[in-house]
Amino acid sequence: MKPLWLLLACVLAGCSNLPSRPDLPYDAWFVGTMAPDYMDTWVEHIDVVDRHGWVYEDVSGGVSSMRRPPLLNGKPAGWPKQVGLGSGRHMTGIDLPELIFVTWQSLVEPQTYNARIRIPEWVHEEMLKPHRAYCQFDGQEVDGLYRDSITLGLAPGGIVKAWLTGPCLSDIEITRYQASVSKVGPYGGKSGGKHRPLNEISKAYIERHGVPYGSW
């Protein structure tokens, strides 16, 4: 691995071994996060190690994609059949990932988790494979579609599930992972153990129905 400080030093010094623009059939791949209904999460940061060993720190973060129906009739148990992209960022100029590190706060507990997701070679191969598929939004078959996105589902108890996704294409599960509790706590230990506050609607749902542990 080449640490980020070395990459910055090379930029300043004009090194010749900087990572070249990745040879991909699209401009960027995407990494996003989602959470079950009412199970609020806050992603502190996502770091990526690409398949050539270059490290990219804090490439994404913030609120995960999530539904919060106000009538408390959402269904947080389990995962949806089609997960979508989630909330995240396009990885422009970064090659396909070998490792994805994510640190997030599960606000319903509250607890802070760390996960290290290894992306196997078969996922890289699938991300480079073009497909022809029927797209519902325009009612016709389209060529040159790619599964160019990785969605991470973050659930209470430190459960992470990763899918490979793409426009008009079915999701493919990559892995399910049990994250570890962060030893330093939220915000890298700089908040005195205080997490972000839980949304009032989510709080009301949990007080009435609880957290469906074991369903993810």
Q: Could you explain how this protein is built, in words?
A:
This is DUF2931 family protein. It comes from Pseudomonas flexibilis. The protein has 216 residues and is mostly beta strands. It has one domain (23-188, 197-207). It is 12% helix and 41% strand. A 5-stranded mixed beta sheet has the order 4-1-9-10-11, with no helix packed on it. A 5-stranded antiparallel beta sheet has the order 3-2-5-6-12, with no helix packed on it. β2 and β3 (55-63) form a beta hairpin.
The tally of beta strands, per DSSP, is: 12
Helix percentage range:
10-25%
Strand order of the largest sheet: 4-1-9-10-11
Query: Distance N terminus to C terminus?
Result: 32 Å
Query: What is the strand content?
Result: 35-45%
The largest pleated sheet is described as: 5 strands, mixed
**Which residues sit in consecutive blocks of at least 5 with pLDDT less than 50?**
none
What is the string of SSEs from the N terminus onward? HEEEEEEHEEEEEEH
Q: What average pLDDT do the residues reach?
A: 92
Going by helix content, strand content and strand pairing, the class is mainly beta
Can you count the helices?
3
Shape: globular
- Compute the CA-based radius of gyration: 19 Å
How many individual domains? 1
Pfam families: DUF2931
Protein name: DUF2931 family protein
InterPro entries: DUF2931
Topology overview:
Blueprint lengths: L3 H10 L14 E7 L6 E10 L4 E9 L23 E6 L4 E10 L4 E8 L2 H7 L3 E5 L4 E6 L3 E7 L3 E8 L2 E10 L1 E2 L18 H10 L7
Protein name: DUF2931 family protein
Organism: Pseudomonas flexibilis
Pfam family, one: DUF2931
